[in-house]
Amino acid sequence: MKTIFDLAAAMLLLVTPAPASACSVTDGYRVPTNFELVEQADLILLGEIESAPETVKGLDTEQMIVRPIEVLKGGPVAGTVKVAGMAAPPRFAVKSDPNELENAHPLAYIGGCIRYMFVPHSTVLFVLRHSPDGLIPSGSAFSRWAEDVPSPGSRWMKAVRIYMAIAALPEPNRRAALEAKRKELAASTDDSDAQAIAADVARSLKGNRRWNDIMREAVERMH
């Protein structure tokens, strides 16, 4: 089975002769780890998409209306909020894999390389930051800034809550706290969520590799 990176590389080959230049990421670009994503966010919001435009001219101007369900970080939030995005056409109307923690939603690997298409009325965990133009994705290309979640107790929600607690510690203490949490979770051998989150914490401790190196290797596997 192809990995998400192989699929992304295949898409890049169709649109550009130089996969390293896709989405204008620099050669040294690394996708932020999930811990970095949470750590750097101004607002983490679980919300239901109430309405979304069917076409999008520019993500700075076309916005969805999101009804907050829970504010995990930042806030308070009064009423609905506007988040850049559009309603997904039927062929792209897919939700996030609830078991996935490493890769972003598949639609993050096409177009502008950040997710901007959503299933209307779905429940999404948004990781956001403030800008002069309003709320924008906290994460950059290929990050998990907006993932569908089936419930407040889902795997991604659990991971984000763990990262939030550690990010609230003084910065010098965070790495040791991540390592301690990884060991604690890994010891829960009968808990599949704990095992998956432990693996994600390990990735956060190690740091992500350069994206263009990953893509070059994926392209080589295709030949």
Fold blueprint:
Elements: H1 4-15, H2 34-40, E1 43-51, E2 63-73, E3 81-84, E4 86-87, E5 117-118, E6 123-131, E7 134-137, E8 146-148, H3 155-167, H4 171-186, H5 192-206, H6 211-222
Helix pairs in contact: 1-6, 2-3, 3-4, 3-5, 4-5
Could you please describe the fold and organization of this structure?
- The chain is α+β, with helices and mostly antiparallel strands and 223 residues long.
- It folds into two domains: 45 residues; 177 residues, OB fold (Dihydrolipoamide Acetyltransferase, E2P).
- It contains six helices and eight strands.
- Strands 1, 2, 3, 6, 7 and 8 form a six-stranded antiparallel sheet that branches.
- Helix 1 packs across helix 6 and helix 3 packs antiparallel against helix 4.
- It is globular, with a radius of gyration of 17 Å.
- About 9% of the residues have low confidence.
Task: Considering the chains and any ligands shown, give keywords for the structure.
223 residues; alpha+beta; OB fold (Dihydrolipoamide Acetyltransferase, E2P); 2 domains; six-stranded antiparallel beta sheet; two-stranded parallel sheet; 8 strands; 20% strand
Describe, in short, the structure shown.
The chain has two domains: 1-30 and 209-223; 31-207, OB fold (Dihydrolipoamide Acetyltransferase, E2P). The chain is 34% helix and 20% strand. The chain has helices at 4-15, 34-40, 155-167, 171-186, 192-206, 211-222; strands at residues 43-51, 63-73, 81-84, 86-87, 117-118, 123-131, 134-137, 146-148.
| Total DSSP E strands | 8
Measured by DSSP, the beta-strand proportion falls in 15-25%
The helix fraction, in percent, is 25-40%
CATH architecture designation of the largest domain: Beta Barrel
CATH C-level category of the largest domain: Mainly Beta
Distance between the termini: 16 Å
